[in-house]
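A favour, since you know our structure tokens better than I do. Could you add the entry underneath, on a fresh line?
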Amino acid sequence: MELRQLEYFVAVTEEASFTKAAARLHVAQPGVSAQIRQLERELGQPLLDRSGRTVRLTEVGAAVLPYARAALAAVEGARLSVDELTGLLRGHVTIGTIDWIRSLELPAMLAAFHRDHPNVEITVTQEDTATLAAGLRAGRIDLAFLSLASEPPEGLRTQVVIEQDVYAAVAPGHELAGRPTITLAALAGHDLVSLPRGTGLRAVLEEACADAGVRPRVAFEAAEPPVLAQLAAHGLGVAILPESAARAYADELRLMPIVRPRLSGRIALAWRAEGPRSPAARALIDRARALPPV
């Protein structure tokens, strides 16, 4: 039994797919299948049920899984202990972000970290908040900048770095264009242009509407605030935007802070509350936590 076989087994279990596990491990899919079949031959029992559209654990596989995870965690812990004692900073870290947040000067922070620790490889990935939070909990991402609603995601620690009001933005000819502010109730019945579910700003909107008994009518969704602004500028609805994104289009749109209740969006640095982190990951988290709040 080899550690590589256990690593492949855990990856296929978590991804419920040989193909996705192979992509995650950066190896060929036939190699993953061959190693797991060899592990099954050594144990004398099938660990995975391959008969359905997704791969599932057999009863034996479910019994073996915690031991496989424990073995991999023990090896990782041993490596971390050696790195701690030798003061060696190397390896690979992954930072996730919902957007390339210019006000935080992420490129400058990453450049300074790379100068101090040139042997650490850094990957930057951009996803929505729900996907990033899942990646943090699974250990695929070391730290991330998330958009938060009322409560931080379970299993994560967070530090708020940006807090700003949420605005409604409309084209100059829209019937709401003359208002200096707008209430949540006044948005009822109007077509909204919003980020999709899984994003923090959408969660802020939906939680506030649920508390106020308002049913939002989201007519258009887009993954980037600039796209929302452009859709609103063409008269397709009321864009729901963070203040910084709204003010970038002040010449094209009429902006109204949402009041009664006041909606506020937060960007937070997040990292896994439990589980081993490499010295490199801890160093990058410490560097990111030192960023001044905006």
Q: What stands out?
A: The chain has a mean pLDDT of 88. The first helix runs from residue 3 to 15.
